[in-house]
Amino acid sequence: MAVESKDNKVHRVLIANRGEIARRVIRTCKKLGVETVSVFTSVDALAPHVREATVAVPLGDNPREYTNATRLVQIAVENGCTAVHPGYGFLSENEAFMTAITEAGVAWLGPTAKTMHDFSLKHVAREIARSAGVPILEGSGLVQTAEDAVHEAQKVGYPVLLKATGGGGGMGIFLCASDADVAKQFEMSAHQGQAFFGNSGVFVEKYIQRAHHVEVQIFGDGEGGCIHLGERECSIQRRHQKVLEETPSPLVDAPLRAALTSAAVSLGAASRYRSAGTVEFLVDEDSRKFYFLEVNTRLQVEHGITELAHGSIDIVEAQLRLQLPGLTPEGGAPALLSSLAEAKPYGCSIEVRINGEDPAHDFAPCPGLLGHVSFPSEEDVPGVRVDSWVETGTEVSPHYDSLLGKLMVWAPTRQEAAAKMAAALAKTELQGVPNNVEFLRSVVADPRFLAGHYTTRFLEGFHFVPHVAQVLAPGMQTSVQDWPGRIRLWHVGVPPSGPMDSLSHRLANALVGNDEAAAALEFSLQGPTLRFHCAALVALAGARFAAKLDGKPVGWLRSFRVEAGQVLEVGQVEGDGVRGYLAVRGGVQVPAYLGSRATFPGGKFGGYQGRYLRVGDSVPLSKEADVGAQPVELPEQLVPQFGALAEGSKSAQWRVGCLSGPHADPDFITAGFMDTFHSSPYKVHYQSNRLGVRLVGPKPEWVRPDGGEGGTHPSNVHDHIYAIGAINFTGDHPVVLTVDGPSLGGFVCPATIISTELWKIGQVRPDDEVIFERLTIAQALAARLRTDATVAAVRSMAADGVAAADALAAVTAAAAAAEAAAAAPDVALPPSRALMLEVPASEGFPGAQYRLAGDRYVQVEYGPMALDLTLRVRVHCLEKLLAEMSASGELPGLVETSPGVRSCMVEYDIAAISPGKLLQVLQAAEARIPDVSRMVLPSRVVHLPCAFDERWTAEAIGKYMKSVRPSAPYLPDNIQYIAENNGLPGGKEEVRSTFFSTSYLVLGLGDVYLGAPCAVPMDPRQRLVTTKMNPARTFTHEGTVGIGGSYMCIYPMDSPGGYQLVGRTLPIWNTFGRSGPFTAEKPWLLEFFDQVRFFQVSESELESMRSGFTSGQYGITITETTFDVAAYTAMEASMADEVAEIKARQRAAMDRMLVAEAESLAELAAAAEAAGKDGAAAAAAAAADDEDDESVFDKPGYVKVAAPFSANVWEVRVAAGQSVAAGDTLLVLEAMKMESPLTAPVAGKVLAVRAKTSQLAASGVTLIVIDTN
Known about the structure:
CATH superfamily of the largest domain: ATP-grasp fold, B domain
Shape: globular
Number of helices: 28
Helix content: 25-40%
Structural class: alpha+beta
CATH architecture of the largest domain: 2-Layer Sandwich
Radius of gyration: 35 Å
Number of domains: 9
Distance between the termini: 85 Å
Mean pLDDT: 92
């Protein structure tokens, strides 16, 4: 029930603050029935205090708006607030703000303006204390110059503190031991006082060598009545900021307590103090004398332990009851003070402050993403209290203080309280942002703390060993990865991520005795430089890089010990290969996201804050980083064989084993081309990365003239689930889909690399050649078992002390057993061809094809190559049935099923169930699928805004034309192309009206990535058909809406893609599920069989909606409905003739556009041939043939700067004649989706620039010439 004031106005409190104190005030207001108004800047839009308040008011994008007094007064008045609670920090002690609030007729829950003014200036506060008979430290008044400060310091006697009179929180305070120190620090103290508190006044104060910081909580009625609530010990500090507080103080005995509290109450009474405040003292441990420091005219951060020690007291409640009519108890303020005074303290309370800071880096603040947050509950630790504002997914802003939360405990004795605090910290987990939790665990375990014998200098002699490796240089694309990565989410488009070279990753872990799933570092081309703050056992694997430990070379494929303080520097890659791996005993301790620690940079989740490492990062390591394993070396016989370098070439040739399928001969690609495919080398394109490795080589010979309903190109098919390692033809261009690749798409895949060979694709570099060797299923099975045995044997060497000879013998025995198992499976292996088995259609059964997709997947495909929604319903039934069979044990080894439009991808463990047995189970399952024609499935209608033909799609198309393909029938206007490809007489307007009148049925998720829908218009008459871009785009904005084949897709993240673009809508992925219709367990918006309906909005409206949707301030409409198969089938039959006419019109239009596409491709091929841009070799030849031959630069003083690897020239930053210094960036190269600066090795003048933007630069080709003469 809401509490009303005397004028019947409902009490409403504006909380002029953020973070945990805002939540703390809201909690008490709710208890008392008082409404609350919170304020927030855009960086705090998802903070708990926003959603927990009665009303939340946005302050805008400026992070400093929390101190905009004028705006806050306006908000208080406009929202009918009767009071303002300022919390602490920001404007909590700002006299001008308090005055403005009271002049607006709003109560200020705190002291009067005069009290705030007097105590805000430390030199004035000292005089008030002196007048009240409170002891003060020897010191000066305000000093105007450094010379005056030195003079006063000499009078007081060193050491002294130089203090800003308006300071607080440790700011503006400097310890000075000499005249030189005072002279040096004077200006800084004045500057910090002015900058942070608007007052540059400075004074000198005596410094006590063995001091305790003890404070007394007071509460006054503003009329001279004042009581105390005991003292708090606050001596454990860093940079004059409190780290741990406790009550009572272990130093203070009864006589000293009586004197301290009496002095504090006298000061409060003399100043007619109102509300809650704190009087701070310094206590000399040797003499037991105490001295006044200052008065904090606000609620203190550590007020909670006073509440715990007094049982029933709520200090915020007392503030509200004192000043809000209707809440004041009978008897008024005196009665309130009396009730507070009657509550006597009992037991001991301790608080620690959990901060986002790096103890290994001088407690530097550390903003960033918290990937996991877990605090202890009352059940975990009885007597615990947590005041915090962070949760899993919180983005800690750099704009505010580093306090993440406060952990408090209470117990009858100090010994028990200390033990409870240790237990509470052990249960506290904050991962993702460097923080002081591990540091606090060490503090509360320190014997001096446990004995209660510590002063303000406690941390000066405190030894703390952080279990981190500090990043001094990040290398290139250095990320945290684990194996097998993020599994069982492929069906909704979440890629596994993990290592590109899984074999090297697993071996690196094995060499340090880790489980092969432990997280390790992956890096490309250039490795990281790390300072280890703790001892650790580490190993390097993968491609060989130059590596040094404290300047001394270290070996590869062996584990070695790093001592605390040593620096491991991994330089550039040497030889072939591109990626290296660094494993540390115990693994890298980043938080798991959706079951894995692997980094997915595109989705900005997993690993270290969802990104590649940066300078200054602290990589968290295990406490067992140097125990439990011994250094070992990988036996030579087990070293992975990299590609062979051709004579006189810098490029390697790799032989990579694969299996045919799922889409090869006879129904998609000719048998003749498949022979060519398996015998011809494919060159690695420079635009390759963790999403996919692009290849250049023989173009396929297609069996079909086009993709039918799947699209106009013969490479198009109805969307299906891709196998990881599939060689995917986007148009005529092959791409190997790798660990960060898309799960659902509409292109054919004629072959799939087996799991034990895929590591090689993680090591290819631009211009390397790949030959795809055709293997059998038996060979794949044997390779899998042999590889697992190898990794296990190496781990046994490090973890169990097994001798190398014994480990090799174990591998040899396992290999023989693997060959035998593959040769004699429990059920005969199916043929090693794309189409393993075909079952014809029969009554009630549409027919099925069982397609091979590597050694991990079998694709079940139903019916003819047509869009039939009953087939998708059958897939749904098959998935449900297989899940039940897996749970019952009928289907061992099932990993996951993932639906396509008319197919189901079954992922299985070939070591747990043979392919032959799997086929038997799949066929048996068909007999148990019920009649789908009469099914009614639950469905939802999801209404989304969309800006049509907007600037974001234009930007993506512009990038495509610049870097991928300059002209095509679908360029520069995708929407006009859609109109022409469908023969729409109304052109773009007819596309628009069709799009916004369509209800799109979601058939698949992950069409590209992360819950992206593969959705088809429910009304067959509205199915616009398009081809996909050939080749695909390298960039698409998150939220973009595209049409490809007959399907609609929404891109959930910035990513490549091939659909024709029509508009942009809301985000459909929310990583931590912190707002809107998302949850932490289901961060994707859409579900199978949802119906998506768009309504048109402007670009500016969409921007506002996107911002509000992300922050939880804008909601979408979702209604429940059903998908009735029988009703849909009847509707479809009723319009068959009309649909046939539409398809005929589309067919004629598509034929015209196919001719135009063929002509466009021919023109581009001719232009490329003429320009010599068919590859890096051609680019090199073009450079050599240039009239400005390189040999002209072979002169003394001329320095040629060459491309270190084949790459695209992304940006040229210098011009001929320009002077440069060593280290200046000359140009930026792009390769493997990495932008790499090419810097000047020397100082001089740029003589020649031989690079142009978008030029393909071959490795070793001179791009810049610098004249040093």
